[in-house]
Amino acid sequence: MNNASSRSTLTTTQRKNASMCQHQPACPTAFSADREAAKPVAHHPEQGWSLLCNGVLLFEDTGELLPDGQIIAPHRSLTAEQVATAA
Ligand SMILES: [Zn+2]
């Protein structure tokens, strides 16, 4: 009982100290320029999006949705060319 209790206290403390990442080195935050370098934690190619470790939703067309609701427009110029080739 005592052991279980102190173990859960330790876990709580670690979670408070850590950012969103459960690993090291931590990913760039959602508000840094290299946010796309964060590790993907969920990948849904059939739906065209990935969820990154820092909470950013990264879409197939390189558009992004930040955790605070901010939208980043797609910024990969190759997309139009790829669509044209596929069609
Ligand atoms: Zn991370």
From TrEMBL:
This is Uncharacterized protein. InterPro entries: DUF5999 (IPR046041). Residues 1-26 are annotated as: Disordered. Residues 1-22 have a biased composition (Polar residues).
